[in-house]
Amino acid sequence: MIDVTNIKSPGWHRVVAELSQPLPDDRVFLLRLLSTLGLVSNARQGVLFSVSGSQEQSSVEVKAAQVWPFAADVIDPTGKPLRPLEDLVDPSKLDATTIERTKDVHGAARTVAVSRQLQVFSLDEEQMYTGTQSRGFVIAAPIPNGLSHETSTRPIQHVITLVGETTSRQALQSTLAMVELLIGYVFTHEAQQALRRTRQGTAALDLAGRLIASINATAGSQQGFRAAGFQLVNDLCRQLSLDRAGLGWVPGSPARWPGRGRSEEQQAVGSRREAYSVHLKAISDTEHIDRRLEMCRKIEAAMEECLDQEQPVLFPAPPATGQGADPALAQSVTHAHRDLARNDAHLKVASIPLRVVDARGERIAGVLLVEAGQNAKLDPALVELIQATMDLVSPVLAVRASDDRNLALRAWDSSLRAAAWVVGPKHTVWKVAGIAAMIATAVLFFGTTTYRVGAPMSLKAQQHRLLASPVAGVLESIPEEIKSGTRVQKGQVLAQLDAKEFQLQELEARAQFAQYDKQADDALRKGDNASASQSRARADQARARMELAALNVDRATIRSPIDGTIVSPDIRERVGSMLKAGDPMMEVADLGTMKIVAKVDDRDIGYIQVGQTGEISPKADPSKTVAFVVDQIVPLSQAEQGVNAFEVRASFVAPEQLSDHEKRWLLPGLEGQAKFNTERRSFAWILSRRIVDQMRVWLWW
User: Fold this and answer.
1) Which phi and psi angles does 279 have, rounded to 5°?
2) Around Cβ 661, how many Cβ atoms within 10 Å?
3) What is the pTM of this model?
């Protein structure tokens, strides 16, 4: 029998108090348990192992996560962690060389992780309990996971090993009993964690009740839904000690709200821009909201990021694995949240979708965004609490928003009531639709408008020059200011070819010319006319070579032929390379005189005349339009991509009145659509013209 009367000693009470103290994080409890086991067992060293893999001898893997006695930078004397919690039990942050008897300790931890039973191992070659003196022992204890009734079904995640000196068999048995007893406090910690989660659920219900009561208190306010939103965010900040909270709402009718309940038909009816945008409605402690402010835009961007993912978003995101991890929050996209918190390194931001369940399924009516500073707490547990709370509050907000609809929706209801008074209370919508159809038919056949012929177009410069290498040579240099988009003047130097070879040729030809000219003069003085003529011919040849070399020296300097802008890609990377005569180098165009080249289908060319006006719209921004007038119709069609088209050239109506913004995007090569204004026609003729013409072709009308 073992004497355990000292279990009631003050030291033991202190151990029980430390292990029974509620701790918010499992990692802190594991380190406290490791320290307590090391002190109680009088061990030289204790090691906490992290277990991964299936619980089989062949695939289980153990990694040392922390060593006791702790280093000075791990835990202070009061038990407060000095490192981030994710680094306390991280195997990658531990120096494995500090572990005693590494091979024996790892083997013991691996064996216990598979057997799930507390075991003791001798560090001597003799077996324990044989009566021989041993030099030491290793106690390996598996740490159960979950409550007592869940332990057998959950895998072992951690193992603690204790290395100590053996004194006697009875002392070792007492140590094993105390270790096994202290391990049981894991269930106390798990029970406290389960109780904390239960309290969180109760707290969510209690918080939702208080928020709903405060929202209902604003029922008589003239501001309606806006007042309810302000009351909600202010009460939420006060109840949870948050720095700021914002409420965003999805515009449009509930049928356009995003969510799992939206069918493909509903998605086709509602525009994507309406369905997946959020309008900021309320910010805590802020009476007036201007959505044009940069802060409001960032808040709405973060809300839309949460809306697109249809799940809560937390920044900084928690880890995906380990203690305190949340895989869903860890995998969420946080670009807009990071941008919102960029100016404050300690700011934490979370967005929670406001989910509403109705006959159409689960929908997201809005987003709640909360912020917490350095001294406030905002973690996955609090996000879970807010989400549970808002799941209860969101339907109340949806009702208030429905009662506070905008003028268009109220006008729709008023129109239905007025139509019922005119056409009768029965089948009102069908009757109104019939009257509208008759009015539309009358407008279709008797209403007229200008028939506009459309054609693809592109912009070209009226003065455009392609500069090629005039001679074969090495591209020596390009001035620093010469690059794509640079404005140049006529005669300005654009590039310089290596002219040394031409200069040498000029010097050689000049010397030969002087020599042959002297020989000709000498021959004339001697009366040798034949030799003089021959020398004069050679002198003329040398002069021609000299002039050609001088011309090549001058042509080696590439100059701009016109005033314009360089519109070709930069060829600076070709400096030092050999160019052949005729190799293209640069393009210079006068951007001040642009012309429009449209490809008009041969079916529409009959409606185009010189002097007609129209407008062009670029593909980059169809909302922009510039007026033009037709200058020329090229009387020769061209077949392109199966379409027979005529080239129509036009110019801008008033190019000098173009704004600087328009001049910036009216560049050579710009493509878009040209609309030619022709004669006035009825809406019915415009809509049916193509069909009628095709029928005439088929039926030979």
Assistant:
1) -105, 125
2) 9
3) 0.39
Of 612, 686, 692, 689, residue with least CA distance to 448: 686
Distance CA 59, CA 53 (A): 6
The average pLDDT across 384-407 equals: 84
- Distance CA(645)–CA(432), nearest Å, equals 46
Which of 684, 206, 139, 213 has its CA nearest to residue 451?
A: 684
Contact 594, 459 (CB under 8 A): yes
What is the identity of the amino acid at 191?
A
Q: Tally Cβ neighbours within 10 Å of residue 152.
A: 9
C-alpha–C-alpha distance, residues 669 and 569, integer Å: 13
pLDDT band at 79 (very low <50, low <70, confident <90, very high): low
Cα 361 from Cα 367, distance rounded (Å): 18
Which whole-number Å values give the CA distances from 65 to 91, 157, 550, 594, in the listed order?
4, 12, 82, 72
10 Å CB burial of residue 179 (0-12, 13-18, 19+) is buried
Tokens representing 149 are 């009734």
458, 650 Cβ separation under 8 angstroms: no
The whole-angstrom separation of Cα 244 and Cα 239 is: 12
pLDDT for 223 = 64
Q: How far apart, in whole angstroms, are the C-alpha atoms of residue 306 and residue 314?
A: 9
What's the distance, CA 557 to chain centroid? 49
Taking the C-alpha atoms of residue 367 and residue 355, their distance in angstroms, rounded to an integer, is 9
What are 267's two structure tokens? 């998605």
Residue 315 main-chain phi, psi, to 5 deg: -130, 130
Q: How far apart are the C-alpha atoms of 113 and 49, rounded to whole Å?
A: 10
DSSP, res 153: G
Task: Using the predicted structure, report yes or no on whether residue 658 has a pLDDT greater than 50.
Answer: yes
Nearest Cα residue to 245 out of 232, 233, 231, 227:
233
Asked if the model's pLDDT at residue 10 lies above 50, the reply is: no
